[in-house]
Amino acid sequence: xxxxxxxxxxxxxxxxxxxxxxxxxxxxxxxxxxxxxxxxxxxxxxxxxxxxxxxxxxxxxxxxxxxxxxxxxxxxxxxxxxxxxxxxxxxxxxxxxxxxxxxxxxxxxxxxxxxxxxxxxxxxxxxxxxxxxxxxxxxxxxxxxxxxxxxxxxxxxxxxxxxxxxxxxxxxxxxxxxxxxxxxxxxxxxxxxxxxxxxxxxxxxxxxxxxxxxxxxxxxxxxxxxxxxxxxxxxxxxxxxxxxxxxxxxxxxxxxxxxxxxxxxxxxxxxxxxxxxxxxxxxxxxxxxxxxxxxxxxxxxxxxxxxxxxxxxxxxxxxxxxxxxxxxxxxxxxxxxxxxxxxxxxxxxxxxxxxxxxxxxxxxxxxxxxxxxxxxxxxxxxxxxxxxxxxxxxxxxxxxxxxxxxxxxxxxxxxxxxxxxxxxxxxxxxxxxx
Amino acid sequence: xxxxxxxxxxxxxxxxxxxxxxxxxxxxxxxxxxxxxxxxxxxxxxxxxxxxxxxxxxxxxxxxxxxxxxxxxxxxxxxxxxxxxxxxxxxxxxxxxxxxxxxxxxxxxxxxxxxxxxxxxxxxxxxxxxxxxxxxxxxxxxxxxxxxxxxxxxxxxxxxxxxxxxxxxxxxxxxxxxxxxxxxxxxxxxxxxxxxxxxxxxxxxxxxxxxxxxxxxxxxxxxxxxxxxxxxxxxxxxxxxxxxxxxxxxxxxxxxxxxxxxxxxxxxxxxxxxxxxxxxxxxxxxxxxxxxxxxxxxxxxxxxxxxxxxxxxxxxxxxxxxxxxxxxxxxxxxxxxxxxxxxxxxxxxxxxxxxxxxxxxxxxxxxxxxxxxxxxxxxxxxxxxxxxxxxxxxxxxxxxxx
Lengths: 434, 402
Known about the structure:
heterodimer; A: alpha+beta; MetI-like fold; 2 domains; four-stranded antiparallel beta sheet; 8 strands; disordered N terminus; B: mainly alpha; two-stranded antiparallel ribbon; 2 strands; 74% helix; 1% strand
């Protein structure tokens, strides 16, 4: 507020002051110092803004563009005309007849390449016979205008030649200069063809709603579980004793270790054939036969939720512990004097103090769990009823090879994200004053 | 509720619950340590626990020694607190029973401290329950965190036939000597893990430097300078922080395919910092805001330019924050999997995480997979434990990302 008041122009001053002498008017607009500061600020921010625009904003726009495009994985390699050149007829001496052969094809099976142009420098010492009518020879430079190649098109151009002395001297071999071949192919990524088929495909049928449901279950239970475990762990460590530092370090391990390492460890631990967990459960008489933890519904979903809770409770516990240690202890002493029992102290004193950080953590973790990809991808690959939206992006784009559909799912994720971040800023701004 | 608030009820009940927890823990520890068949004996453990709980209320000093003796003794009867299979000799069985009894007796005496057999006040009762929950919590959390890492390390030291023969046996046969580390020598020898380790290290360090290079000026601008659009920038940083990587990975994959940047370390080093800059910027600006502005103003008054103020005053003051941000960014880059997985196909350019992903095939024995995981985990753990103070601070300084 203070920065704006001086700028708002001549504020009405007292009547008496105006009559006696000209009132000192505050400077209008932004003064040079402010302008310089702003310039400096933008200068300092420029590298970051540029980088983030290139790698975050552009890809986001690209996702919207691709989601309305019929793009498959194969379309990422645009169709090109391909040529190979060889000399046939096994010439052995000067004066032998041979055939210079160009084999041409369209690398794509279904897309047209237009305006194909073949250029080649013919080697010295070859006497050229009848040229193909589409080709023109200028000195040793040959240019052939081959027109359009349909999808899957193949052609062979043969030019009869007679071996000359210079060619025989060069070892009877074609020089290492590959012929040039150019053509224009329409790239589906930049063309004007649009489709809503991607969206129609992903919203079609029960699959999408199943995926959405799994995502929500995973997100809600993963978040709440991690928060509750984190709260419990924080309560345990909210006292000083010998070894507290060691335990705190130990409890952070799941979060700090590379996800790929811990995910594979879980897979091996819970392996149905030779996993230790199954062996232990069978020996303890909990189950008679091995359980396929990551391979059957709905156990697989429960397992990935447990993994999420296990991996992220350290984060919640760190934040909650930091908040707990900043609570004034006087309050507890006073409550103790008044006869409040330990549980009452926790419920009526600690919880209200922790509610702020708990709700911030809940929202942030909710968004992050919603966005989680690596964990489920590594644990189950999205099988056995664990396919979330993020895994579905990968499935559609790379397993089904339909990049467009993958992008459409990504757009759906982004839309959800916008809703969440709206909520986030509504609530968190009040909580944390961001 | 009030019936529970009597020493002679609360003691045995807590004792029973605690004994079940301890019996399970003991059985798991002994199974893993020896590979033999140990399982908690529900009835035996329950009876022992209830008895010790009652004892803890009446004669607290006796609970420990009696637990030790009685636990060992009961392990020879059908009411063993830790039931052993037929192939277990008497000594380990006795040991398991004794350990279980002792680990029940002494703690339960401590839990019931201050309680007597009659009616308890709400304070005394809840204090005991809380002590019970605390003990349970330590065992529970330590188990769930330690077991997976223990399994990871031990599996990497075994060979295929040992693993299939008895998946529970995590004892180490020290007589094998250096042969224990065969998986590691094979990974470094045949699977090129030395080069992966170096690539990962290089990429992570470069990421840290580039991130700081971008984030420090940006964070300073957001924290200190006044300009139109400051609030908007501050919010967009948070917003970008929330865009899921998989959404960005798809267009980045397409662009890199077209530009020929896939399969190049350069491409990876280009992309990693951008994913960490928003986090670093957010953490740093929080710290910069906490620094007293007066010192910087004094520098300005003495004729330093803004950039010099940043270089000579702000940065030296924010060394702790820079350390924790660097550690955090290093951790993100070191652990990054998705982009490396999508963008790198050429085994000569793999990072560690990508290298481990390549080990996940049915032809490669899984002790190799676990050895690879250990190789990736140990450096980051060592770094983290060595600099834990910075790390915990850095993590709470505004990063909830993961």
